[in-house]
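Entry 12.
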Amino acid sequence: MRRGLLIVDRGSREPEVSKELDVITKKVHTRGGYDYADFCFLEVLPPFINDAIQKCPSDNLDTLTIVPYFLYPGRKIKACVTSIMKYQQNIKTKFLVTKPMSMHPIMAKLVDRRIIDTLKKNNQDINRNKTDVLLIGHGSKDINAQLSINYIVKELQKSYRNVSRCFLEIEQPDIRTGIARCERDDPLVLVIVFYFLHEGIHVKKDIKCDLLPALERSRLKNAYITNHIGTDDAMVDLILERALEVEDAD
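Predicted 3D structure (tokens):
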């Protein structure tokens, strides 16, 4: 059986996003033993889903596993699945759609690794019981998206002194409020997690526009910021696991 895999990301004009996706796709291609693997974007700029389908050697593939590469379930996932499945009727290759990258222990372990790496980088004692954590997510009106980030918070709360979350937009608490709440907990060390897949404009600029002034106004002495999720090998593991879930069920 010849298998293909297509990663569908939201899309960004920032070149770093395409570079990160290219790295991840190549790793998935190799480690997953796929005959074909590629990525495309749901919106913003090409390659769009239509471009990917035209490029895909569908005549030579028995299955094409579609991976909605999103941290949260919600409206974008529905749009992704709707957009991709309309091509199924004209293609012999069977489409298999995975779950998004949410509500999974691998994500909690990845975030934990980001926190530990940040503590090491800043020569801080790696003592989880003395460390507070603040996750900054994008924000969504979809209740499933809220459940997704709350899942990560609850997993981390098993190890760290205090764990909370705030949002760049749409949801409350916003970043300013999130920092103020952390300040009231009087942390010895605060690690701020950028809970974003890519180095897009949110990570490069938008979050910092709110976060840095809030930190400057606060009395927090030891506050450190993690890298975004990026091309961590754990994401490759998660993509492959999500893919196997639908491929084994086929």
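Annotation: The first strand starts at residue 3 and ends at 9. The CA atoms of residues 180 and 218 lie 7 Å apart.
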